[in-house]
Amino acid sequence: MTIKIGDKLPEGSLSEFIEVETEGCSLGPNTFNVQELAAGKKIAIFGLPGAYTPTCSAKHVPGFVEHAEAFKAKGVDEIWCISVNDAFVMGAWGREQKATNIVRMMADGNAAFTKSLGLDADFSKFGMGTRSQRYSMLVEDGVVTQLNVEQGGKFEVSNAETLLGQV
């Protein structure tokens, strides 16, 4: 079953590579409970097939980095990028994309959270295994209020500009 507007985010966890050690977060990969992280916040989330892939690197992440201040001005507390990669890869990709401290690069290494959203996709024919469909959503206090899922290989509705217009 695919998540839809009005649904609560499913139980799950995501990992993030932490660049600077702080109280409660150690340097390196840290695992977070999605429900705890989303509680009481308005979050723009976008999912994509993979770090360092062409459309994801050239358009998807840069759009959210570019429009981060506009999201904040509309009351969005955080922006998350979720991909079926490990936290080390997501951390390195985030540094390369100049997304550090702008977009939280969240790793779903085994695709467990992505599968629970019903937004997984089989990329085996590309040698990539199970990955995420390309999507964006707005989540308020753990509930999906907007959802934009791309159709097969497209990049038309999950971009930052579309979600920003829906906030």
UniProtKB/TrEMBL annotation:
Keywords, alphabetical: Antioxidant, Oxidoreductase, Peroxidase, Redox-active center
SUPFAM superfamilies per the UniProt record, alphabetical: Thioredoxin-like (SSF52833)
Catalytic residue positions: C56 (cysteine sulfenic acid (-soh) intermediate)
Broad EC category: oxidoreductase
Transmembrane segments: none
Superkingdom of this protein's organism: Bacteria
Keyword flag Oxidoreductase: yes
Task performed by this protein: Thiol-specific peroxidase that catalyzes the reduction of hydrogen peroxide and organic hydroperoxides to water and alcohols, respectively. Plays a role in cell protection against oxidative stress by detoxifying peroxides.
Protein name: Glutathione-dependent peroxiredoxin
Species the sequence originates in: Pseudoduganella lutea
